Structures are given as C-alpha cells and as structure tokens.
C-alpha cells in the first residue's frame, strides 16, 4: 500500500509546482484522469453485468466461489476510481484528498491484493481440474472454500484498518503526501503492510507459475495422445479427416482460454511490483537519485498502477471464457441461443463425452 502519493497544489499555488521534481505534470493531471474515467465507466458496466449474472448462479464449485469474491473486489476497486480522478486532476478539495489517503487508496490496494490471492487459488483449482479431472466436490469442501474466502477478506481488512485509523494528522499545506498524514505508528504499520503485500504477491506469482507449468505439461501430453489417435484414425478413414479436425481445433481454443488467468495476472500485477522496487528506492534513498530519475520512476509506477487497475475490466473475460455457468446464464438472460460465441470459446467440444483434461480444465466446475 502506497504512502508516497503526492497531491499537487491548487492551480493558484505555483510555489512548488515549478520545481524540477514536481509531479504536477500533464501525465498525472490530464492523461491518467481521462484513462481512469474511461476505466470507471467500462468497469461499472462490465462488473454490473457480472454481479447481475453471478447472483443467479449458485455456488456449487470452488471456481465460482473464487470468481464471486473477485467480482466483489473489482466492484469496490471500480468505485475508487472517481476519487483518484478528482485528486489527480486538481479538482478535489483538501478534505477529499485526505479521504483518498485515508480510505480510497487503502480500499484500492486492499482489493488488488484480494484479487491476487484469489488468482492464486484459481490457478491451484485449474491445475487440480487439469491433473485430476474426475475429482468432484462436496458440501464440506465448498464450506471450507467459503470459510477460506471469508478468512482472506477478514485478514486483509484487519491488516489495512490501522492504515485508516493512523492516517490522522492534518496537512500543514495544500501540497502533501499521504505519508505526511500518518503518525509515527502509522508509518511503522504501513511498512509492515508493505512487507506483507510483497509476500502475498511473490508467493502467488510462484504459485501461478508452478500451476501453469504443470497445466502446460498435462496439456502437451493430451495433445500428444490426441495427435497419435487422430493420425491412426486418418490412416484408416481418410475421407472423414476434415471433420475430425474440428473437435481438436475446439479443444486447442479451449486450452488457450485456460491461460487467460495467467495472462491477466502477468499483465495487471507483475509490471507494478517490478516497477515498485526502484520507485521505493528512489523515495527512501533520495541521495542516489536526481529529480529527473525520481520523476521517471514515479511515472513508471503510476503507469504500471494503471495496468493493475485494468484488472477490474479484464476479469470479466475470465468469467466469460472460463465459466460455462456464467456464459449460459448470461445468454439465457439475454435470450440468446446456447451456441452463441462458440467460435470464440471452442465450446463445440462440450458435447464430447471423452475425459479430456482440456474440457474439464476450462469448464466452470
């Protein structure tokens, strides 16, 4: 969770905005507010649809439980965007900027790390479904997953609550950082939270990489078996070879969909955490960095933070492509035929009664 967010002065106060290290620049005050405004509108629509659909789906699988938690996190994150837009664009009052430091920014990072944790759990679940496609679930396992979800929210809320309580100082000037509002205990607790968040990210990054390495290996084995079977069938029945290719093409598309979780994780969360290392060093060891370098790392951090915010609009892709229940409920509510968008999802293979891990790993089960 960041404390180094700096709020620029009001437009009439130029005493510090003309300095070399000023962060009151076009990228921060114009470009990002416009981008976050667009993100808010798109996220509000997509996540509104996701909430509407998921309220109609019973929690009968681990995957659906995890997705519902991510939907809630995305909705909360989306509602923090307007406050960031107002504060970054110099249109917020001092009171609203204090609210951003105390509440809005804390909620933003809270929901980011909740999403990261559930991405790790989803990766484990997809790996389990790929390696052991016939292992079912029961009410006891579902209850444990619900308890785990509640424990994650409770743990992170307890972890972040002191950041709200201990950000209690009044700003001395209109130009202040969030860290200026924290007491000494607040700064210490914030450092603890930063370390915990780093552990959360790096442990989940390792988990995601291990799970998708195992998934890739299993899918490769499945392709090898499928290829050998299709080669034998083509040799004996050449005329039907063209028809036989279609299910295999569908399965290839479905296996590609499985990697959406990996793609969203790496696009949204990895760049920010790599950029955060030099940015933090530029803030804590200022003598090693000149003003231009500090500004560069600040802009790099803000740019990768925007990528993290994209998570709120990219997650609906996961719901649509990986969750058959979500797709079916959406189509049924919109009165669309079940086969809609099958060319994108590769759902021609749904009718396949075989035990392919490709099919099982991409179903919302």
Automatic annotation (TrEMBL):
One example GO MF annotation: G protein-coupled purinergic nucleotide receptor activity
Subcellular localization: Cell membrane
Region (Disordered): 1-20, 227-248
Annotated keywords: Cell membrane, G-protein coupled receptor, Glycoprotein, Membrane, Receptor, Transducer, Transmembrane, Transmembrane helix
Ranges annotated as spanning the membrane: 34-55, 67-86, 106-126, 147-166, 192-215, 254-274, 303-322
A GO cellular component annotation in the UniProt record: plasma membrane
Residues covered by the G-protein coupled receptors family 1 profile domain: 46-319
Membrane topology field: Multi-pass membrane protein
Predominant place of localization: membrane
InterPro entries: GPCR_Rhodpsn (IPR000276), GPCR_Rhodpsn_7TM (IPR017452)
Protein's name in the database: P2Y purinoceptor 12-like
């Amino acid at each position: 969770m960041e404390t180094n967010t700096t709020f620029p002065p009001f437009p009439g106060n130029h005493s510090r905005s003309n300095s070399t290290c000023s962060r009151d620049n076009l990228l921060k005050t114009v470009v990002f507010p416009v981008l976050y405004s667009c993100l808010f509108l798109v996220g509000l629509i997509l996540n509104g649809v996701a909430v509407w659909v998921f309220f109609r789906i019973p929690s009968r699988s681990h995957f659906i439980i995890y997705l519902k938690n991510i939907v809630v996190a995305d909705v909360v994150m989306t509602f923090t965007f307007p406050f960031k837009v107002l504060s970054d664009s110099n249109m917020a009052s001092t009171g609203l900027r204090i609210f951003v430091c105390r509440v809005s920014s804390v909620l933003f990072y809270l929901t980011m790390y909740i999403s990261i944790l559930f991405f790790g759990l989803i990766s484990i679940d997809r790996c389990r479904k790929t390696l052991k496609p016939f292992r079912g679930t029961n009410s006891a396992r579902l209850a444990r997953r619900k308890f785990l979800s509640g424990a994650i929210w409770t743990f992170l809320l307890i972890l972040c609550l002191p950041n709200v309580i201990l950000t209690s100082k009044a700003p001395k000037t209109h130009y202040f950082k969030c860290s200026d509002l924290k007491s000494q205990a607040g700064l210490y607790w914030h450092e603890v939270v930063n370390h915990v968040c780093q552990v959360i990210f790096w442990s989940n990054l390792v988990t995601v990489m291990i799970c998708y390495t195992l998934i890739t290996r299993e899918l490769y084995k499945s392709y090898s078996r499928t290829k050998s079977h299709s080669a034998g069938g083509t040799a004996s029945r050449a005329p039907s070879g063209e028809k036989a290719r279609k299910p295999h093409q569908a399965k290839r598309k479905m296996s590609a969909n499985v990697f959406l979780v990996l793609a969203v994780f790496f696009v949204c969360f990895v760049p920010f955490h790599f950029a955060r290392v030099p940015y933090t060093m530029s803030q804590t060891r200022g003598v090693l960095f000149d003003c231009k370098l500090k500004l560069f790392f600040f802009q790099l951090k803000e740019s990768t933070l925007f990528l993290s915010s994209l998570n709120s609009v990219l997650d609906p892709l996961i719901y649509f492509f990986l969750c058959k229940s979500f797709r079916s409920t959406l189509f049924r509510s919109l009165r669309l035929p079940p086969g809609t968008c099958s060319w994108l999802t590769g759902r021609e293979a749904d009718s396949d009664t075989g035990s392919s891990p490709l099919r099982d790993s991409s179903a919302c089960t």
